[in-house]
Amino acid sequence: MTIPRLEIRNIKRHFDGRAVVDDVSLKVMPGQVTCLLGPSGCGKSTTLRIIAGVDMQDSGEIYVDGKLICDTIFRVPPEARSIGLMFQDFALFPHLTVSENVAFGLTGPKKARHARVNELLERVGLTHFADSHPHQLSGGEQQRVALVRALAPRPSIMLMDEPFSGLDDRLRDDIRDETLAVLKDEGTAVLLVTHEPGEAMRMADEIALMRDGQIVQQGAPYNVYNAPKDREAAAFFSDVNVITGIVEGALTDTPFGQFLAPGVPDNTKVDIIFRPQHIKIDFDRGGRGPEPTPSDGVAAKATVERARFMGRESLVEFKMDFDGTLLKATVPSVFLPQVGTPLWLTVRRDRCFVFKH
Ligand SMILES: Nc1ncnc2c1ncn2[C@@H]1O[C@H](COP(=O)(O)OP(=O)(O)O)[C@@H](O)[C@H]1O
Ligand SMILES: [Mg+2]
C-alpha cells in the first residue's frame, strides 16, 4: 500500500469554545491534487494553517510520508516540514528580482540554485523576466513566479489556499490549467483549498467536501458530483430541484413516476433531488406524443414561468401543474420558449437522488 504523502488524523481546533475544525482526517497521496472544498467559514484555512505549522491543533496528529511531524506534544517547526505554501495574497518580495524571488528558499551550491531557478522560469515561460522586478509583471505572471518560488525547494507537499481568487475571470482558467500542469510535472502532492466547486472539479484528483468543520464526503470529482451524500452536498455543486414523496414499499410515487427508495421505511417523507440539466423537455410529442420510455418515467405538465438566454444554454423555469412547484431546467440555447407555453417534462431518473427529508 502506498504511504500517503500527507496524512492528518482527528484534527480539532476550537476558537472561543467553538469547534472550527471538528475531527478532520484526510490523506493526500503522492503526485495527487486533493481539494478541500467548502463554503466560506467552514474551517478550510484553519486546517491548512495547522498543517503548515503556523497554527496549532488542540488534538490530532499530522504525518508526512508516514512520519509524525506534529501532535500535541511533538512539533516539527514550520520551516522544517518540507511544505510549500501559496496563498491568495502571495506577496512577492518587491525589492528582489524575479530570479531572486524564486531563489529565495533555496540552499546549497550556487550553481545548483541557479540551474533550478532557470529550469523553473523556463518551465513557466518567464525566462525573459528573470531580471525584472515584480511590479513590471502582470497579475498572471506574478502568480506564476509565486508558484515556482514555492516549488523551487522541491517541497513534499504544496498547500494552496484559494490561490486563484485574486485573478480576473478570463485569465483564471488558463492559469489553473497551467498551474496544474506544473504541479503534475513536479510530482508534488497538493492540498488545495477552494470554495468554488468548478475549480475543485477542474483541478482535483480527489475532493474532500467540508461543512461546519467536518469532512462530509470525499472522493473523485465524478463521484462526489454524481453520488452526493446528502441534499446539501448535491446543492453545493449546482442549483438543484426538489420534489417530495412518501415511501411505500421502498418506492415513492411522484408526478414524474416512481422512484426507488431502497431501505427507507414506509410512510417516510423523501426529497427527490435533480440538477437543472437533467430535466428533459418533451419537444417531439408537443406534449401529447407516444408513451415515454420507462427510464424517463412519466411526463408531467408544466407552464413556462420564465426563460432566459444564457449564451450556451437557456435557463427555463417551469411551474408544475401538479402543485405549483417551480423547477429549473437548463436546455440548449437554440430553444427559448415563450412565457406561458405549456410543455411536458420528464426527468433523467438515473440522475436523481432520493434522500430522507
Ligand atoms: N484566530 C482566530 N480566532 C477566532 N476565530 C477564528 C480564527 N481563525 C478563524 N476563525 C474562525 O473560524 C472559522 C473558520 O475560518 P476559516 O478556517 O478561515 O474558514 P474558511 O477558510 O473555510 O473560510 C470562521 O468562523 C472564522 O471566523
Ligand atoms: Mg479561507
From TrEMBL:
Superkingdom, taxonomy of origin: Bacteria
Keywords attached to this entry: ATP-binding, Cell membrane, Ion transport, Iron, Iron transport, Membrane, Nucleotide-binding, Transport
MF-aspect GO terms: ATP binding
Domain ABC transporter: 6-237
Record has Iron as a keyword: yes
Keyword tRNA processing listed: no
Entry-linked InterPro entries: AAA+_ATPase, ABC_SmlMolc_Importer, ABC_transporter-like_ATP-bd, ABC_transporter-like_CS, ABC_transpr_FbpC, Mo/tungstate-bd_C_term_dom, P-loop_NTPase, Transp-assoc_OB_typ2
PANTHER family: SPERMIDINE/PUTRESCINE IMPORT ATP-BINDING PROTEIN POTA (PTHR42781), SPERMIDINE_PUTRESCINE IMPORT ATP-BINDING PROTEIN POTA (PTHR42781:SF4)
Record's protein name: ABC transporter ATP-binding protein
UniProt source species: Pseudohalocynthiibacter aestuariivivens
